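Weekly sync, protein design subgroup
Attendees: M.S., D.O., the rotation student, P.L. (late)

Item 1: inverse folding check
M.S. brought a backbone from last month's batch and wanted to see whether the design step gives back something sensible before we order anything. D.O. pointed out we never logged the input encoding, so this time it goes straight into the notes. Structure tokens as presented (150 positions):
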């Protein structure tokens, strides 16, 4: 399982490594049970499931009795985290939809290129036939555009 961790302060350290304000995705197997507990209980970190985007832990929002500010601020933080998770899911779905559209457009462009190539080949073949007919007419003594009555 992979988790995504966001630090509230750039470079904040927990579980033996610094964390970023930008989302960092890691595999849970990279950590010991003790390190995972430390990450999950840390108020400076937001931990979410990397696949679903569901928030797994915001220590400040869990109502931790050791934190006096966990009340209203924690509820607000949890609501914001859930809203961000929803937005992340929507963006992921939109990204997947755009990827499908891009693939369809690539296929259509390839089809159009193939059609254009075939058309150019036909035009070249037609030009060769016209040149061959003109050469045959000239060698047969039929001057093109001159009247035979003169």
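Designed sequence read out in the meeting:
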């Amino acid at each position: 399982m992979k988790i995504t961790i966001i630090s509230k302060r750039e470079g904040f350290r927990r579980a033996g490594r610094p964390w970023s304000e930008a989302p960092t995705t890691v595999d849970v197997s990279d950590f010991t049970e003790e390190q995972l507990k430390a990450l999950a209980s840390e108020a400076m970190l937001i931990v979410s499931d990397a696949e679903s985007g569901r928030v797994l832990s915001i220590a400040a929002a869990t109502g931790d009795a050791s934190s006096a500010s966990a009340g209203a601020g924690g509820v607000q933080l949890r609501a914001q985290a859930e809203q961000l998770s929803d937005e992340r899911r929507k963006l992921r779905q939109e990204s997947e939809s755009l990827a499908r559209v891009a693939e369809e457009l690539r296929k259509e462009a390839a089809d159009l290129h193939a059609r254009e190539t075939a058309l150019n080949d036909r035009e070249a073949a037609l030009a060769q036939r016209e040149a061959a007919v003109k050469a045959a007419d000239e060698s047969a003594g039929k001057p093109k555009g001159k009247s035979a009555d003169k």
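Discussion: The CA atoms of residues 19 and 59 lie 16 Å apart. The two ends are 95 Å apart (CA to CA).
Action: P.L. to compare against the previous round before Friday.
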